[in-house]
């Protein structure tokens, strides 16, 4: 029987913790209904017998403590809440246990902001990782050696798994169920819980937030200028001249500070403005394209789809109430 350890960290978000347990437990239930033997033994593993979660609103009773589990097959790290640096500090005693379990062959999966606790073990260094897009800038700042893939719902690298934002953790649990219990069971569980299968990207949900938590004042001023004047199509040379920098130095400093090239930043600001207009306005796609400073239809559609995963028309039809009822 496969042993699953769902961690109960202090400050965990209850939804991902209990949701994971429910999905794995439902697999056992389905097998028992067909006179089979359960394949998962599921423990809620804590540092203490009782742990407050979801901002202190709930208390979870662990079924085991880390010292009670000499060996496990799969560790699930649920999403964390609040100050993430403090959450890592509060739960640091999980880290050597997780490292020991990984050395003994265990696989590890982090859900949403649980990636911060997983990354603090060092096991994600040099690997791809997904987490909630809201925390992307903070994650990159804290864990520069991890390759953050903000658009992905799931990453799977040699027994280390991560998931994107919020309820996308359900897709990672289905991925694990398919691996351990088969495709047919994963489809059945998806139907029971009404989970959409084969979601690959969270790009359509992302809101661009320019990384301004840095100390490079000319770059910060350039960011603010771009955000206020994106319709005017500022060039890299113009921006470098405005802040008395060579183009090469400006581009290098901008990339280091924001994790985007200057051109990428301009594109993301334009596309974010286009998204807002497509969500709430009555203008058609071409009108929105001109509104945000594009004149080339193909370039606009290509850039929009690259960033959001949807064409401008698909995005409008998905999120604009008027378009949905037309």
Examine the coordinates and then state which fold CATH places here, giving the name of the CATH topology of the largest domain. Answer: Rossmann fold
DSSP strand content: 5-15%
Number of strands: 11
Count of the domains: 2
Gist of the model:
The protein is α/β, with parallel strands linked by helices and 326 residues long.
Quickly list its features.
48% helix, two-stranded antiparallel sheet, 326 residues, Arc Repressor Mutant, subunit A, 11 strands, Rossmann fold, 2 domains
Describe this entry's structure for a reader:
It is a single chain. This protein has 326 residues and is of the alpha/beta class. 48% of the residues lie in helices and 13% in strands. It has 2 domains: 203 residues, Class I glutamine amidotransferase (GATase) domain (Rossmann fold); 109 residues, Homeodomain-like (Arc Repressor Mutant, subunit A). It contains 15 helices and 11 strands. The strands form 3 sheets. Strands 5-2-1-6-7-11-10 form a 7-stranded mixed sheet, sandwiched between helices. Helix 6 packs antiparallel against helix 7 and helix 9 packs across helix 10. The protein is globular. The mean pLDDT is 93.
